[in-house]
Amino acid sequence: MSVLRRAREWLAQDPDPDTRAELSALIEREDLAALDERFGAKLEFGTAGLRGELGAGPNRMNRVTVMRAAAGLAAVLGPGRHVVIGYDARHKSDVFARDTAAVLTGAGLRASLLPRPLPTPVLAFAVRHLGADAGVTVTASHNPPRDNGYKVYWGDGSQIVPPLDAEISAAIDAVGRVDELAQDSVWTELGDEIVDAYLRAVTALPLGDARELRVAYTPLHGVGAATLTAAFQAAGFDSPVTVEEQREPDPDFPTVAFPNPEEPGAMDLAIVLAAKTEADLIVANDPDADRCAVGVPLPGGGARMLTGDEVGGLLAEHVLTHTTGDRMVATTIVSSTLLGKIAQAHGVRYGETLTGFKWIIKAGPGLVFGYEEAIGYSVGSDAGLPVRDKDGIGAALTVAAIAAAARRDGRTLLDLLDDQARRHGLHATSQLSFRVSDLSLIAAAMSRLRTDPPETLGGLTVKRGDDLARGDGGLPPTDGLRYLLAGGARVVVRPSGTEPKLKCYLEAVVPVTTTPAEARARAAEQLASIRTDLETRLAP
Q1: CB of 84 within 8 A of CB of 253?
Q2: What end-to-end distance do the CA atoms of the chain give, in Å?
């Protein structure tokens, strides 16, 4: 079937005047290149659901794509099941959420819609709190402004995992024209009671009793500000001072080049605000507030932004100090090995999983803390995890509690990191990525490493090499290689699951023999040497 015919068939069922106008113009001028971009492929439904650029056609996020996803989910769940639906403040998110509710109720399911754009962790919490069978949130997290996405949770409040994703994907493929789908408008509009329940859950986390703290905060034009401020107030903290230019949700993200707190420049306004207000702590959420970035203001201006691994180590120590019993902590194969040492010191179980929070949450029973290096954390208590996914609000609240206790003792989070380094060694992590236009270059680089594995990296002997595709390390097979080096250093190389990138995760472990600063400098040199070797071996 020609691309023009496919486009005309899509146009005939598209209920959105915006994408209809876009597609009509492309058809009228027979722009085959643009049409092929939209119809030559389709967004694939996986464990992260759907995510892509807004626009017309199966390779874009739009109302037809979303209605098909909702119909596929309905087919897998069956009539009578209950689905909770949330959404962020991106372009079309509210429309996609209501389309989902209409299709689900039309298929005989019950749908409950969150009252307004809210953080993703509120939706994840709501699934279990309401005893729902599944949840959907419309968000593209920290993607560029032109993107949107569709994430599915199951009844346990965590993201779906295989083979459920394949089952839903097959059901989506079987959906016919969306203008022939039954739709209904009888769904439940939830009120603030669900937000109040979430706030009660996160403020019940072990937060200690120190509350004197000045916090500079940015939601990066996302949906986190109101919920985070309410959480701080409910826990007895002063409200954070928020970057005014970034306080309100804005789907165009006008003050940042990329709405990700890890990106260069994204934290500039928060750092300036921290200096003006003499803040003790800097906190940021990404646009859907499931991730949390943390920084410590420095005397004279500027700030030291902490890595996800550093925050993960501090949160783990705090949680394990304030919980009891048979517990478990977990992280992924690309995060720092420090968590395993912290777990051993506290006498608790440690789990290591594939990348993705969906795997961390399933690491095992008694999980009280999980994190991934990409600034995602789930903080729990003796009662377990209130949110079985990344929770940037609960993490921010707990980091504030840690910082307030340190401040009371005349210290900062940087002092706590030094203490940790003295106990367990200085663990420094870094990343190296290669972006390609030809995916075969990634496969070729992985093949070279498998056929000619390195004997040394950065001057350190490779003590062991694991091919994760074979299931080495006891994990489900995945395309990746892990090298354990002399002295505790480690390298993991894997293709990105979401971008045309080859990603390398580097770690150096250095004992503190004199000062943490000296150990940090040695670790930086080690990482630089490993990076140089990898660049030589892997550059396309």
Answers
A1: no
A2: 37
Sequence-distant (≥ 6) Cβ neighbours of residue 515 within 8 angstroms = none
Specify which residues 429 forms β-bridges with: 507
pLDDT digits (tens, 9 = 90+) for 173-228: 999 999 999 999 999 999 999 999 999 999 999 999 999 999 999 999 999 999 99
Q: Which residues are CB-contacts of 125 (< 8 A; sequence separation ≥ 6)?
A: 157, 197, 198, 201, 386, 387
Q: What are phi and psi of 440, to 5 degrees?
A: -65, -25
Question: What one-letter code names the amino acid at 141?
Answer: S
Phi, then psi, of 423 in degrees rounded to 5: -75, -40
Cα-based angle 335, 336, 340 (whole degrees, multiple of 5): 110
Report the candidate in 483, 489, 453, 488 with the shortest Cα–Cα distance to residue 468: 483
Q: Half-sphere exposure of 423 toward its Cβ, with a 13 Å CA cutoff? A: 17
Q: Are 509 and 488 in contact (CB under 8 A)?
A: yes
Output the pLDDT for position 539: 76
Tell me: the pLDDT tens digits for 248-268? 999 999 999 999 999 999 999
Those residues with Cβ within 8 angstroms of residue 192's Cβ, 6 or more apart along the chain or in another chain: 115
Give the integer Cα–Cα distance in Å for 440 and 124. 37
Tokens of 197: 């329940």
CA 355 – CA 273 distance, rounded (Å): 34
Supply the residues annotated as catalytic: 141
Chain position carrying tokens 């989070």: 413
Model confidence at 435, pLDDT cuts 50, 70, 90, reads confident
CB atoms within 10 A of CB 196: 12
| Measured distance CA(99)–CA(94) in Å, rounded | 9
- β-pair partners for 433: 503
Sequence letter at residue 106: G
